[in-house]
Amino acid sequence: MTRVALIDYGSGNLHSCARALAAAAGDVTVTADPDTIRRAERIVLPGVGHFADCAGALRAIPGMVDALEEAVLQGGRPFLGICVGMQLMADIGLEDGETRGLGWIHGLVEGLTPSPGLPVPHVGWNALRLPRPHPVMAGLGDQPHAYFTHSYVFRPEDEGEAAAWCDYGGPFAAAVARGNLIGTQFHPEKSQRVGLTLLANFLQWRP
């Protein structure tokens, strides 16, 4: 069993993520303890809601950002960010002004601006386009669909760091990846077979 630290910082999708990871054969510890993060083999940062609120909640846990940087950036542990957890890897979030992100993958988080007639937030199932092979995105099928619920999107500075694209009145990064980092704008824990396959891949990933 793989020891996975699922970070508890008040995110709304925490328990559904824990259940999905457990179903994908992960040994999951839900934790807000920086020392547990430092010892974890793999780290998952969930996230639902407002970028600034999530960034503030993460930084409000003493030592948490330092522990994440030690484990992920210095230690090379596999890291998965989900929804706002993915967005927090960006440099800046533009929801209600500018909020500093972790700066792990360069880019901005900005409002979704689809074609007229398409509602915001973007809620529901949509197709993924995979521009290049990635071990965590393997085996998802010929036309994988995943479940989204969001009003903001991560615009990576280097579009080559998009591991999946989605179209909602225009393209946006549905996943980003670099080195031992990967993040999904969609919710694997709500994406049935596609999501469980992705989580199982993450639990076996050796970047």
**Proper CATH architecture:** 3-Layer(aba) Sandwich
Anisotropy-based shape: globular
Quick one: CATH superfamily? Class I glutamine amidotransferase (GATase) domain
The CATH topology turns out to be Rossmann fold
Mean pLDDT: 94
- What is the radius of gyration computed over CA atoms, rounded to a whole number of angstroms? 15 Å
Number of strands: 13
Strand order of the largest sheet: 2-1-3-4-13-12-11
Unreliable segments (pLDDT under 50, ≥5 consecutive)?
none
Name of the top-level CATH class: Alpha Beta
- Helix-residue proportion: 25-40%
Protein model, in words:
The chain has 207 residues and is an alpha/beta fold. It has one domain: Class I glutamine amidotransferase (GATase) domain (Rossmann fold), CATH 3.40.50.880. It contains 6 helices and 13 strands. It has helices at 14-23, 34-39, 51-59, 64-74, 84-87, 192-204; strands at 2-7, 26-31, 42-45, 79-82, 92-93, 99-100, 107-111, 122-127, 145-150, 152-156, 162-167, 171-178, 181-184. The two termini are 18 Å apart. The mean pLDDT is 94.
